[in-house]
Amino acid sequence: MYILIPLCLFIACLFIAIERQEKYVPAVVLKGTASLCFVILGFLASKKGEGSGLIIAGLILGAIADVLLNLRYVFKEKGKLAFLAGILVFLSGHIAYLAAVFPDCAHKLITVIAAVILTALLMKWLFTMITAEKAFKIFGIVYIGAIVLLSCTAFANLIIEPSTFRLIFFAGALLFLVSDIILIINTFGSVQRFTLRVANLILYYIGQIMIALSLMYL
User: Fold this and answer.
1) Which residues pair with 130 in a beta bridge?
2) Contact 181, 12 (CB under 8 A)
């Protein structure tokens, strides 16, 4: 099972290199294959505990979203549609993760309030760094709000009742959040940087791997 971790990261690095060469079709295949690794890892790691099915569903939705996001480079005339579709599927994945951990949150109202405040502060900062159409901004608020709430919930659960599952899941969710912030800055910022692209993808794959591994302790 553990061979899937270096394999996922190796294929992800290969994908980054191929995408850098603007070979977008093989890049999509490689990206999908790397994502398939963390999905399989989730299935193998799962002890079928409560909420494991929702977490696996989140992993699968993440893998689908990965492919959709990169299809914007293959079908450039439908680039915006592919990007929005990918983000929508990612949002569905975040909701699946949230549905798995939110019921265990002991202080739901406080967690939601904290997430709303953090989302507002984060989006205020992001809007100073990016330029995007109104539709993208509105969708971005909902999307970032969902993953901030996920991270806040995972953190609250960890603080109230620490466990190995909660620690690994929180770390994965936090890396996912940081990855998405980098993605937004690099996609809608004034300058697209390859280093940010690399950081976005590596943090993302490590985050998903950790979420998959957390299932061993659920």
Assistant:
1) 189
2) no
Q: CA end-to-end span of the chain, whole Å?
A: 17
**pTM score over 0.85:** yes
The whole-angstrom separation of Cα 12 and Cα 31 is: 6
Give residue-wise pLDDT tens across range 59-78. 999 999 999 999 988 888 87
| Identity of the amino acid at 217 | Y
CA gap 59, 45 in Å, rounded: 12
Token match 């990855």: residue?
179
Q: How far is CA 81 from CA 55, 69, 78, 146, in A?
A: 26, 9, 5, 21
Q: Are residues 15 and 69 in contact, defined by beta-carbon separation less than 8 angstroms? A: no
Helix pair angle (164-188, 134-160), 10° resolution = 160
For the segment 64-121, what is each residue's pLDDT rounded down to a tens digit? 999 999 998 888 887 778 888 998 999 999 999 999 999 999 999 999 999 999 999 9
3-state helix/strand/coil string of the chain = CCCHHHHHHHHHHHHHHHHHCCCHHHHHHHHHHHHHHHHHHHHHHCCCCCCHHHHHHHHHHHHHHHHHHHHHHHCHHHHHHHHHHHHHHHHHHHHHHHHHHHHHCCCHHHHHHHHHHHHHHHHHHHHCCECCCHHHHHHHHHHHHHHHHHHHHHHHHHHHCCCHHHHHHHHHHHHHHHHHHHHHHHHHECCCCHHHHHHHHHHHHHHHHHHHHHHHHC
